[in-house]
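Thread: "does anyone have the structure for this chain?"

Original post by V.I.:
We have the sequence but no experimental structure in hand. Need at least a predicted one for the grant figures.
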Amino acid sequence: MPSRLTALGAHLVFERDGHLLLGKRGPGVSFAPDTWHLPAGQVEDESVRACAVREAYEELGVTLREADLQLVHTVDAVSHIQLFFRVHHWTGEPALRGPHLCAGWSWWSRTALPEPLAGYARTALEAITQGWPYTSVGRAA
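Reply from O.Q.:
Generated one for you, tokens below.
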């Protein structure tokens, strides 16, 4: 059986007063342009938690520690695995650090998420609310 190459992504679930932090992806990005999404990034030559810490600083300008992250969900999407971490503590206020990638960050009520929201991010957020640790998307039954 041939092996598959899998991309690995780290997603950050920042929550404050029942609101989630989402960013509107820019119109020129390759994945999901003009779509709302969680702060996230692909793992490079690092651990998934180190990626999450790096992305928090690069995308938002906030500082956090690996110990501040709780793995709350995994999305298996055939060609990529996405890990979702709840952020328990951070230092700094989220700010727009990459305007070429993201048009802006906003806090959204869990019960009134914006549209369009990246499909697997919506799936993960719904599963996290239900307490489900894993979902598989894009596979034949």
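V.I.: this helps a lot. The chain has a mean pLDDT of 92.
O.Q.: and Strands lie at 7-13, 15-16, 19-25, 36-37, 40-42, 69-76, 80-87, 102-109, 134-136.
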